[in-house]
Design brief:
Layout lengths: L2 H6 L5 H9 L13 H19 L1 H7 L3 H4 L3 H15 L9 H13 L7 H13 L1 H4 L3 H14 L9 H37 L4
Helix pairs in contact: 2-3, 3-11, 4-11, 6-10, 6-11, 10-11
Length: 201
């Protein structure tokens, strides 16, 4: 999943949020450098990603993309799901989206001293350009995926992926709603399991 979904699936817990955001930038034994609750967020992020990547509904969505975008389909569906989360935010949260995003940045700012270097650089752009909000617009999706396309080693065609969203938006929306309810239930239960395993309740 992409960043807004990971923020939402941190369930209002700041240190879980931090871990959820930095997880992809923490490799191997580096995880031992962080306090327990941030580690729990890192572990939750990885569980969310595994659940997402292996879910049959997500694979069904990727079938619309795979012929053109190959293995980049997984990245593209992650971004698409943030788009639908924003579009349908009121179905998932009573907190207005602008306030949720502002609170997310405020919480993350309080832990900037533990950010891995590569995440810190990316986060400065994320906050300045408000990625969390702009994924709700086709233009924002296009900008994001074009930026990712420039950073890939191989030709990804991700700069054209927003056209697939326009073409298959109704199908992706149905998939998103069915999948995201499953994911929310899974993530909440998995976080409790992780906390119990780490002796925190």
């Amino acid at each position: 999943m992409n960043f807004l979904a990971h923020a939402f699936l941190s369930f209002g817990q700041e240190k879980i949020l931090v871990g959820n955001f930095i997880a992809d930038f923490v490799k191997g034994k580096q995880i031992n450098d962080f306090e327990d609750e941030i580690v729990q967020g890192i572990l939750l992020h990885r569980e969310i990603d595994y659940f997402t990547d292996s879910h049959p509904l997500v694979k069904a969505g990727q079938s619309y993309l795979r012929k053109k975008f190959g293995h980049y389909s997984t990245v593209i569906t992650d971004v698409f799901f943030d788009y639908f989360l924003i579009k349908n935010w009121k179905d998932f949260s009573s907190t207005p989206l602008p306030k949720f995003i502002e609170d997310t940045y405020t919480a993350l700012d309080g832990y900037s001293d533990v950010f891995p270097e590569r995440f810190a650089k990316m986060y400065s752009f994320m906050k300045k350009d408000n990625w969390l909000l702009h994924y709700g617009e086709i233009e924002g999706i296009q900008r994001s995926l074009t930026g990712m396309s420039r950073r890939t080693t191989f030709v990804s065609k991700m700069e054209e992926a927003h056209l697939a969203l326009l073409e298959y938006e109704p199908q992706f929306q149905v998939i998103f709603f069915a999948f995201f309810k499953d994911l929310e239930t899974f993530a909440f239960a998995k976080l409790q399991e992780i906390k119990n395993a780490h002796g925190r309740h």
